């Protein structure tokens, strides 16, 4: 999960990394209040989970309260590179003397942590790497060794921080590492890590994180209360959010066949089976979404899953593929029938059961004698049937 700048900044603040004073606001009235608090000049920064905001006009330096209000009125309704602006950060403007770049990321190739840094920051690091590859240093933090202040000092020196900035850079590197570890991040990036202050007064100069980007490892969410404080109503699809609240894993795709299965492996195979069947039939039918009901799902969970999948109006048919292990196909069948009773905008379903209580499940479905229910013996057969139905209902529509 990617964090917004204002959220990432909060994690840096907690770790004691210097950042500008800033207040998050979601309307121009709150921006005016924030400006009173922060003072002028300040920067009004669109909050979107995408980089290059500056180049896209998403960062505005303002000198008066009216300019701040105007800037927020321009930024708040904006969509930047397809991302709707969730709010703005009103941040103290700093006088930038120099820009550095530092990131720590997981390196799956070398199975350690990659520190990417340049003393000549300012633009995006990819661009610097292209034009001045020698200026971008790639260093590593070993998961097996302690990354301490001495190691951080050596690293700051290798990166090429100006001598006057070296000690503070080492402290910041160490704190970034703490943020990375404590929050189970996969990326912590500060760009720019700016040298700020009065050019004529050395004592006023210091390093400050003017922008931050943090990605958290979704697999570690359970260790952090599900990261409830970071749940993003702007990014998540509404149905994905509803599914998550129910403890289900739902993903929206672009096609016509809704897919419900138990277990990630079976769900992925179901997607492949639909793609294979569509290819064989020479059609461009695709999965509309997929939902994993997990292990041991009850009839209630199955009914909720049907509701979520059928809430997508693009779904023409639902392919239910369950291999009963802990999950009983009897429970799944009961849930399916309950959903057929309660959901008004029902569409055809194709069911393939195997494993625990498969025969009982199928007989429950058959005894319902509902023309919407189609039963298949194998996954391939079910996928063929689902694609055919999707194609026919598309032609009828
Ligand atoms: P990004 O474009 O999404 O990476 O957004 P940033 O927060 O990094 O801002 C883009 C650029 O705006 C920075 O590289 C700075 O040059 C400039 N900027 C951001 N904050 C300040 C500030 O406090 N003072 C000044 N003078 N420039 C700033
Ligand atoms: Mn930036």
Automatic annotation (TrEMBL):
EC number: 6.2.1.5
Residue numbers binding ATP: 45, 94, 99
A single GO BP: succinyl-CoA metabolic process
Alphabetically ordered keywords of this record: ATP-binding, Ligase, Magnesium, Metal-binding, Nucleotide-binding, Tricarboxylic acid cycle
Cofactors required: Mg(2+)
Residues annotated to bind Mg(2+): 191, 211
Residues reported in the UniProt entry to bind substrate: 262, 325-327
Enzyme kind, highest EC tier: ligase
Catalysed reaction equations from the record: GTP + succinate + CoA = succinyl-CoA + GDP + phosphate; succinate + ATP + CoA = succinyl-CoA + ADP + phosphate
Cellular-component GO terms for this entry: cytosol; succinate-CoA ligase complex
SUPFAM superfamilies xrefs: Glutathione synthetase ATP-binding domain-like, Succinyl-CoA synthetase domains
InterPro entries, alphabetized: ATP-grasp, ATP-grasp_succ-CoA_synth-type, ATP_grasp_subdomain_1, SUCC_ACL_C, Succ_CoA_ligase-like_bsu, Succinyl-CoA_synth-like
Pathway membership: Carbohydrate metabolism; tricarboxylic acid cycle; succinate from succinyl-CoA (ligase route): step 1/1
Translocase found in the keyword field: no
Function: Succinyl-CoA synthetase functions in the citric acid cycle (TCA), coupling the hydrolysis of succinyl-CoA to the synthesis of either ATP or GTP and thus represents the only step of substrate-level phosphorylation in the TCA. The beta subunit provides nucleotide specificity of the enzyme and binds the substrate succinate, while the binding sites for coenzyme A and phosphate are found in the alpha subunit.
Protein name: Succinate--CoA ligase [ADP-forming] subunit beta
